[in-house]
UniProtKB/TrEMBL annotation, chain A:
It comes from Imperialibacter roseus. Keywords: Kinase, Membrane, Transferase, Transmembrane, Transmembrane helix. This is Histidine kinase. Residues 350-424 form the Signal transduction histidine kinase internal region domain. One of its GO terms (molecular function) is kinase activity. The keyword Transmembrane applies. InterPro entries: Bact_2-comp_sensor_kinase (IPR050640), Sig_transdc_His_kin_internal (IPR010559). The keyword Transmembrane helix applies. Pfam families: His_kinase. The chain crosses the membrane at residues 149-168, 175-196, 208-228, 240-257, 263-282, 289-307, 313-330.
UniProtKB/TrEMBL annotation, chain B:
Coiled coil: none annotated. It comes from Imperialibacter roseus. The keyword Phosphoprotein applies. This is LytTR family DNA-binding domain-containing protein. One of its GO terms (molecular function) is DNA binding.
């Protein structure tokens, strides 16, 4: 639509310099310094290639440092601040300004843009960063449309940031969620900082502040993304490598401080390289999600080849953040599955505990003996019923708990012994040593050992079987030792009762202590010995 | 009669013992109680018994080992167990009755009566006959069995593959267990009714059943009428 020629500058102030016909052959091109807020002029020859449609004026958009007046073919068409009076009147105007050009001055052919400027804040920034001529309406709306899309995008990341922040607050151990939340928030700020120029007037003196903010945001994101990946795909010497990486980033950030774009580029590149290294390691170790992250990283490179720096930066970051999101969703799914499994497991254990009381072997044999006692000796029968009621009652109390005081468990064992005495007519004895009644233990563990002891042993010559529970504890672990003193004690582990009993004990221990326990069961020359160690 | 009780719960064992003495009265010649599987197996080997009353879960061990041994012997086995779900399996192995716990005198008496009055088991559930081989017990599926011939206190099992096996139970006891699939056609023969192809009348009022494999089995004169009615 138009062709721009080189801009030439001259320090000084003459109204005539605005004229299209002024001879500017002796004016300077390139950069130079204008200090003290002195007025200088710049002239830029422009060829308009095609006249606008009728009633549709062209506009001129400038991205330039300084406060200035705009002359088009010698006619003043706009004003951005007060050139030459900056100190006096204070900052005014904005870095990105749009002016409409009178229709009669936009026919095809040669035109001249002259700016009467002053640069109080950045005397060495005598240049027009960007210049665009298009339909005035389009110039105004295009940037707004672009920003509105980018803000939609930013909003999505803001919501993600809040969502994962709340998730983290509800479970403070999930640092990956916190990191992801912060990354999303920084990315949200980065988009805002980048596109704020479309609707908030920023004075040229503040432009650097904006670039510094963008730089700091980039620094944060460039560190957090690989940090996040390092949490998801842990690698050896993680801390050391992260510290080195942070050092490199800081170095990039602090040197070449004024070349904002170069700094951003270098940080983005380091971020990419380090993340790629981590993802390759994760992929090599076949960690879940590593391949997808690798793919996202490679795609972001592809974007950087086809799109401009700005677009590839946002496109690439978005892709990487999405892959981080995916990793989180994988982890959340894993956690949910683990949680569901644990729910099923604890329900199963509860049922198992309930079943102990109603399984036919216990119930029917007990009832048979009971009938016999009632028929033969009603008084003893009543005592037997009371003992049975006590055992049932104790079972009811512990039925829905995962840990109970040892005193309660011992009471349960004693009740069981009483019941079994009536059934088997063997003298069972219970002894304990070093018991701390406040100690907790999963329900019916000792009861199961006792049951096994009664089932699998024959009485000694004096028709007795003795059980002994010993408790010891030290700084490392708590230790319960359960002895059976009997004749012919044996254990058939493949046997169905025995098997389920041991499985129950192990499942209960895992439920409450994960892997911090140890259980052994072995014959001795006087009977049987079970040792249960719970590590702290 | 000689009775062995295998039960590891002393109170229940005493109950069974008391009731058995009561039910059998003067017919009871000998009764003992054993509470481990191992001792029971040893005892069975060296004694002549009429009944074994067996609990299927002894000291946490499955009594099915003992069950297969017991059913291969000449005596009848009555299972007394808390596990009602094991009843079908027990019947398949050829026990005379399954008494679920808790039980009373009436139920136990019913089990004994089954043997004493030679009442036939209502529905035939036996799927195997256990046969003692050298050092092991072999289970022979009932569908492999054609007919059984009494041989003194033993019986001979004739199988579809043409072989025969010796079994320790008497023809009377087997008749009890295998009815109504098998019919006592002769004082020495128990015959699978479905295997009969034809009944041949020989001169001199001699009756023979011809089986599908061509074997000829004599039919007792007194039994002929019943058999014919059933078969037709």
């Amino acid at each position: 639509m138009f062709k721009r020629y080189e801009t030439v500058f001259k320090i000084g102030d003459q109204q005539g310099w605005a004229a299209k016909s002024w001879n500017d052959e002796d004016w300077k091109s390139g950069r130079f310094v204008v200090d003290g807020g002195r007025v200088f002029w710049s002239r830029t020859k422009i060829d308009i290639l095609k006249a606008p449609e009728s009633l549709h004026p062209y506009g001129l958009q400038l991205h330039a440092y300084g406060e200035y007046e705009v002359f088009w073919d010698g006619v003043l068409i706009g004003k951005n601040g007060n050139p030459g009076q900056e100190e006096l009147l204070g900052p005014e105007g904005k870095m990105w300004a749009t002016f409409s050009i009178p229709t009669h001055l936009t026919e095809a052919g040669e035109h001249l843009l002259a700016l009467r400027s002053s640069l109080h804040s950045f005397p060495n920034h005598t240049r027009i960063e960007e210049l665009d001529i298009a339909y005035y309406d389009d110039l105004l709306t295009d940037r707004l449309i672009e920003s509105s899309y980018m803000h939609l995008f930013a909003g999505a990341f803001l919501i993600a940031a809040f969502y994962f922040l709340f998730l983290f607050l509800s479970d403070k151990k999930e640092y990956a969620m916190l990191i992801f939340s912060i990354s999303c928030f920084l990315f949200f700020l980065l988009i805002l900082a980048e596109f704020i120029k479309a609707y908030v007037p920023i004075h040229y003196s503040l432009h650097v502040v904006r670039l510094q903010v963008i730089g700091i945001l980039m620094l944060g994101i460039s560190f957090l993304i690989p940090f996040y990946f390092s949490m998801q795909f842990p690698f050896p010497k993680r801390k050391l490598l992260l510290i080195i990486y942070a050092g490199i980033l800081l170095f990039i950030f602090l040197t070449k401080y004024d070349y904002f774009e170069l700094t951003a580029n270098n940080m983005a590149l380091s971020m990419w390289l380090f993340s790629f290294g981590i993802a390759v390691f994760g992929g090599y170790r076949k960690m879940k999600g590593a391949r997808l992250v690798l793919l996202a990283l490679l795609l972001s490179v592809l974007i950087s080849f086809v799109a401009s720096f700005n677009k590839s930066l946002f496109g690439g970051f978005s892709l990487i953040l999405l892959s981080m999101f995916y990793l989180l969703s994988l982890r959340i799914k894993e956690q949910r599955l683990a949680y569901e499994t644990s729910l099923v497991q604890s329900t199963r254990l509860r049922l198992e505990l309930l079943k102990k009381n109603i399984q036919p072997h216990f119930l029917m044999n007990t009832l048979t003996s009971l009938i016999d006692w009632v028929e033969e000796s009603p008084k003893k029968g009543v005592l037997f019923i009371e003992a049975l009621a006590k055992e049932f009652d104790l079972f009811n109390q512990i039925e829905d708990q995962t840990l109970i005081p040892i005193a309660q468990e011992i009471a349960l064992c004693r009740a069981h012994i009483e019941v079994m005495t009536y059934r088997k007519e063997v003298n069972y004895f219970w002894e304990e040593e070093g018991i701390d009644p406040e100690q907790k233990i999963p329900p019916a563990i000792l009861h199961t050992l006792l049951e096994n002891g009664i089932t699998h042993s024959l009485p000694l010559e004096d028709n007795s079987v003795k059980f002994k529970l010993v408790f010891e504890s030290n700084s490392e672990c708590r230790c319960f030792t359960f002895f059976t003193f009997a004749a012919g004690a044996r254990q058939a582990s493949e046997d169905r009762d025995e098997g389920t009993g041991l499985k129950y004990i192990k499942a209960r221990l895992t439920e409450s202590y994960h892997s911090n326990w140890d259980f052994t069961s072995e014959p001795t020359n006087h009977g049987w010995k079970n040792v249960l160690k719970i590590y702290s | 009669m000689n009775v062995l009780i295998v039960e590891d719960e002393s109170r229940i064992a005493k109950r069974i013992e008391r009731m058995t003495r009561d039910i059998l009265g003067n017919d009871l010649h000998f009764l003992t109680h054993i509470n481990t599987l191992h001792e029971a197996l040893k005892f069975i080997e060296n004694s002549s018994l009429d009944f074994v009353l067996l609990d299927l879960n002894l000291n946490g061990e499955s009594g099915f080992d003992l069950l297969t041994t017991a059913v291969s012997e000449s005596f009848h086995t009555i299972v007394i167990s808390a596990y009602q779900d094991q009843a079908i399996t027990a019947f398949e192995y050829g026990v005379l009755d399954f008494v679920p716990k808790p039980f009373n005198r009436g139920r136990l008496e019913q089990a004994f009566n089954r043997a004493i009055t030679k009442e036939k088991t209502a529905a035939n559930k036996v799927r195997f006959l256990a046969v003692k081989k050298r050092q092991r017990i072999q289970l022979i599926p009932i569908e492999d069995l054609l007919f059984i011939k009494g041989a003194g206190v033993y019986t001979e099992l004739f199988l579809t593959d043409g072989t025969k096996e010796l079994h320790d139970k008497s023809l009377e006891k087997l008749e009890q267990l295998l009815s109504p699939t098998f019919e006592r056609v002769h004082k020495s023969y128990l015959l699978k009714v479905s295997e009969v192809r034809e009944i041949i009348v020989k001169p001199g009022s001699k009756y023979m059943a011809e089986l599908k494999n061509g074997a000829l089995i004599p039919i007792g004169r007194t039994k002929y009428r019943d058999i014919k009615a059933k078969w037709l």
